[in-house]
Amino acid sequence: MQKTSIIVIVLFTFMTIIFISCSSTKTNIIGEWQDDTYKKGNIEKVLVLGIVNKEKPLLRRKFEDGMAKAFNDGGIYATPSMDKMPYDVAIDSASFEKYFKDLDVDAVVVSRLVAVDASRDYTAGYLYTIPFNSYYGFYGYYYAGVTMANSTGYLSQDVVVVLETNIYETTNKKLIWSGVSETVQPDKASDVINSFSDLLVSKLKGQGYFK
């Protein structure tokens, strides 16, 4: 009986450790902006675009596939940009617009890495103004983001991963939603992708953006 009790205790402790380790990754939206003039409830199809250093196409693939899966699971048809657009060069504005017009998408969801901080009181959040003035045109944001992603290095230690996400509707090319998220204590990139994607889709659905 005593041996059985010890085994049960050991198994319970082991399962507790696994549960804690699996649930340690958490994403929060720490800053958000919405266009109050935009009529919600019209989004059925989106193009997902991750702005990543061109030397890391696999990371971009994982990010866009994870985002697309979250949208599709939420009932919104999503296409990863890597299925339609080149990943190793920055395209011009005319080509950029042609891609989403041919796809007949209602919105473009653009995300980029802002920072990976190894030593910061992440509960305090960022002092951040959303959105920056230059973000209102989505090609301008795309081009600026690609330029920065291809020239900026980031810390390798993963404590807090900060992403910036903008959503543009494609009829009038207007910015309709902008936000900054923090993902705490991820062990790998997929932790960030899954946690962030699920939160973003849930938030947008709750705010009534989807048709």
Describe the structure in your own words.
The chain has a 6-stranded mixed sheet with strand order 1-6-5-4-2-3, sandwiched between helices. With 211 residues, it is of the alpha/beta class. The protein starts with a helix and ends in a 5-residue tail after the last helix. Helix 2 (57-73) links the parallel strand 2 (45-51) and strand 3 (77-80). The chain is 37% helix and 24% strand. The chain has one domain: 2-Layer Sandwich (Double Stranded RNA Binding Domain), CATH 3.30.160. The radius of gyration is 19 Å and the shape is globular. The chain is built from 5 helices and 6 strands.
Short structural summary:
The chain is α/β, with parallel strands linked by helices and 211 residues long. The chain contains five helices and six strands, in the order H-E-E-H-E-H-E-H-E-E-H. A six-stranded mixed beta sheet has the order 1-6-5-4-2-3, sandwiched between helices.
Helix and strand succession?
A: HEEHEHEHEEH
Sequence stretches where pLDDT stays below 50 over 5 or more residues: 3-23, 121-129, 150-158
What structural category arises from helix and sheet content?
alpha/beta
CATH architecture tag: 2-Layer Sandwich
The largest beta-sheet arranges its strands as 1-6-5-4-2-3
Multimeric state: single chain
Helix fraction by DSSP (H/I, runs of at least 4): 25-40%
Counted by DSSP, the helix tally is: 5
Alpha-carbon distance between the two ends: 59 Å
Overall pLDDT level? 77
Beta-strand share of residues: 15-25%
Write out key terms for the chains shown.
211 residues; alpha/beta; globular; Double Stranded RNA Binding Domain; six-stranded mixed β-sheet; disordered N terminus; 5 helices; single chain
